[in-house]
Design goal:
By secondary structure, the protein is an alpha+beta fold. Helix content is about 20%, strand content about 40%.
Length: about 120
Amino acid sequence: MKKVLLMSLLVVLAINVFAYKTYCKFQYLDNQIFAKDKPCFNFGSGYNATLLDEKNKLLLFKSDIDVLNYMSKLGWNLEQGSILELNHNWGKCEFIMSKEVKTDDEIYQGLNVKFDK
């Protein structure tokens, strides 16, 4: 029994050893003039990116919280949030999110990303 428990523990530890944390940053312009805005993402590739829906149309969000909830459903965790600029008509927010992955392919899992080059 002890051998089985020890082997199970070693297997669980070995699986988690290969996971690593990756980060993404997104900036969101909260504009009261427009009903919806697009967040600008950076996954560390050196290019800004936007998200597309299943029909390859620009994915728009009503608020920064909508973006956070959307990314959270895909396994991303909020690390830090900050307000970059604030005016009475608009505000610019920046968020750093992280995700535990085992391969680079998992970074974009569930996301339809368009890179701005």
